[in-house]
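Objective 1b. Sequence-to-structure analysis of Glycerophosphodiester phosphodiesterase.
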Amino acid sequence: MRKRTVALFGVLVAAAVIWALNSSLLADSTKRQPMLIAHRGLGQTFSPVGIGNDTCTADRIYPPEHPHLENTIEGFRAAFAAGADIVELDVHPTTDGDFAVFHDWTLDCRTNGKGVTREKSLEELKALDIGYGYTADGGKSFPFRGMGIGKMPSLGEVLSAFPDKRFLINIKSDDIAEGRLLARKIGALSPEQQKLIMVYGGGKAIDAYKAALPDAVVLGTDRVVPCLLRYAALGWSGYVPEDCRKTLFMLPANYAPFAWGFPNRLSERLEANGSTLVILGDNDGSKYSTGVDDIATFNKLPARFDGAIWTNRVDRIGPALAAPQ
């Protein structure tokens, strides 16, 4: 009986220690506004049902509620105006040594062009209509056709237009040369502007970028699963694994409550290790995660949340976040 009592006491003490290490009730009581990450700025959204790596999303958009296209200077400006703290954008290298801001690997879906994006010069890409392929009614009408001519910006144009804004740049390949080229472009910026840039993408490209700019905040996509698994095993102790440091710690909203220390103890310990907690939309078990794009999903977040919110509809979530609580 005495041994059983001692064992029970030990279990209770261990449980109390784990609770104390992970309870947000014991986190810093200073409430901070969550950051908003606008995915591709403000653009047209679409149904995520049946999305695959090669799905053309321009021909399945919802009926437009605003005039902006993703990955454009106008869309970025609208995103910042709606409350975005960080804008995510996609880049591809061009044949003349520049970077074009565009999502797709090929041009056939969104534009009136054909072929692989990175096999074109910046001049060729700027001649295209990037609104050409958008339709919400199966091709009966194309509301943005003719409106996107010359609207594909270079990375330099974007950074010059918003010198004091924060960006998260997505490298679309696993190419070492691409990582090095991007590092040269970012390394040519002022130290102050470099601090505003984060980069994520394929492991080899990210490793090359990080080797050139050791202080940069990066997320190698091949680190995501090891980070989450190691944190699941060890995070109860407050330990943040190496793979989870100086990066973005991304969690779908429906998985987040099961992470050790969520929300604010987790946010604190990540911040102490140079990382940012980022909440995505719900994930249904597929590889595709949505953003926090509607008020119902936004309302599922804790009343106090100190991380960042990933959204495709900053025009909805920005005003909701700014509204008096």
